[in-house]
Structures are given as structure tokens and as C-alpha cells.
Amino acid sequence: MAEFRLTKPYTMPKEQVREAAQGLAASLERKHGVRSRWDGDTVYIKGAGVDGTMSFHDGLIDVSVRLGLLASMFEPTLRKEVQRYLDTHVS
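The structure corresponding to this sequence follows.
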């Protein structure tokens, strides 16, 4: 089992951060078959071997992901994909 956590500060308006977070959730749904569910400023992501949350508050985006045994071999790739998306879409 593997897990990772990424954080990124932001200064853009909260509405734009939400749009970026929705885009990331949609991208993960398309590419990795996960489902997402929003609760306030937190999105919960769940799929085969993937369980995570993404929230934004107090100028910080926080992404936490836990991967099951089989999915853990994709941890470096998934981590880079999420980091690249945040670096590109959040400022």
C-alpha cells in the first residue's frame, strides 16, 4: 500500500480554485476511472485501489491519496500527474 500528500499555496480567487479542482477530479475520472463527490470545499475521490481527498482552504490546496496494493505501483506516475496539474492550473 502506498500513499502521498501534496500541498500547494494559492492566491487566485476561491471560485477559480474550485474550477481547477473540478477539472482535476474530472481528469482523474476520465483517465483512472475514479468517482468524485463534493462536500463543501472538499472532493472525495474513490476508485479501484484509490481513495483520496482534495480540499482547499486558507490559501492552501491539500491532496491526500491512498493507493491499494496493485495501484501502488502507479504512485510515482499519479503523483507527478497531480503535481503537474496543480502547477499548471493553480496560482
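The domain at 2-86 is CATH 3.30.310.80 (TATA-Binding Protein).
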